[in-house]
């Protein structure tokens, strides 16, 4: 899929840069707070915003890689055909849920943009982060739906039940 390298590069790099920024903010804040008696102004706000950006920038990548937490207690009891139907249902249900999230996040981001909402200390506009979250949910919804309809048949690492005894 041509989308995978693009997602991995852009979202992976974005997540890595956000993590570096979080580390830098935390270090500067701790050193300033405990050694210089001068904490970093707005560190808490920056941390909140960056953690949200990290979560939503990683969401499409996690969805595409199928690395979400799954409970498969009954999978071994089902036939392959039944497992395929379960996979289809899970993918389409996830897509519907993510589309709902995208819709609600978009409406909230538009409201935030209209109201001109900003953070308290640094007055950072909040709307762009709402749009980022909505876009991430929309991309993830498309990917989840595609994964439900066209599941990956090849595994990079076989499941323990697929390995033969040596």
From TrEMBL:
The keyword Membrane applies. One of its GO terms (cellular component) is plasma membrane. It is a multi-pass membrane protein. Coiled coil: none annotated. The chain crosses the membrane at residues 12-36, 84-106, 126-146. Its main location: membrane. One of its GO terms (molecular function) is transmembrane transporter activity. GO terms for biological process: C4-dicarboxylate transport. Belongs to the TRAP transporter small permease family. Keywords: Cell inner membrane, Cell membrane, Membrane, Transmembrane, Transmembrane helix, Transport. It comes from Tritonibacter aquimaris. Part of the tripartite ATP-independent periplasmic (TRAP) transport system. This is TRAP transporter small permease protein. InterPro entries: DctQ, TRAP_DctQ. The lineage of its organism: Bacteria, Pseudomonadati, Pseudomonadota, Alphaproteobacteria, Rhodobacterales. Pfam families: DctQ. The complex comprises the extracytoplasmic solute receptor protein and the two transmembrane proteins. Residues 22-143 form the Tripartite ATP-independent periplasmic transporters DctQ component domain. It is found in: Cell inner membrane.
């Amino acid at each position: 899929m041509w989308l995978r390298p693009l997602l991995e590069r852009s979202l992976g790099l974005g997540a890595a840069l956000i993590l570096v920024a979080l580390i830098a903010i935390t270090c500067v804040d701790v050193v300033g707070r405990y050694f210089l008696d001068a904490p970093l102004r707005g560190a808490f706000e920056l941390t909140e915003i960056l953690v949200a950006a990290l979560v939503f920038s990683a969401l499409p990548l996690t969805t595409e890689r199928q690395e979400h937490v799954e409970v498969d207690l009954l999978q071994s009891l089902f036939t392959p055909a039944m497992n395929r139907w379960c996979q289809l249902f899970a993918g389409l249900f996830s897509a519907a849920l993510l589309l709902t999230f995208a819709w609600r996040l978009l409406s909230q981001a538009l409201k935030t943009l209209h109201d001109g909402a900003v953070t308290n200390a640094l007055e950072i506009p909040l709307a762009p982060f709402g749009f980022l979250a909505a876009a991430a949910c929309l991309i993830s919804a498309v990917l989840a739906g595609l994964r439900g309809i066209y599941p990956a048949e090849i595994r990079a690492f076989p499941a323990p039940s697929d390995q033969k005894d040596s």
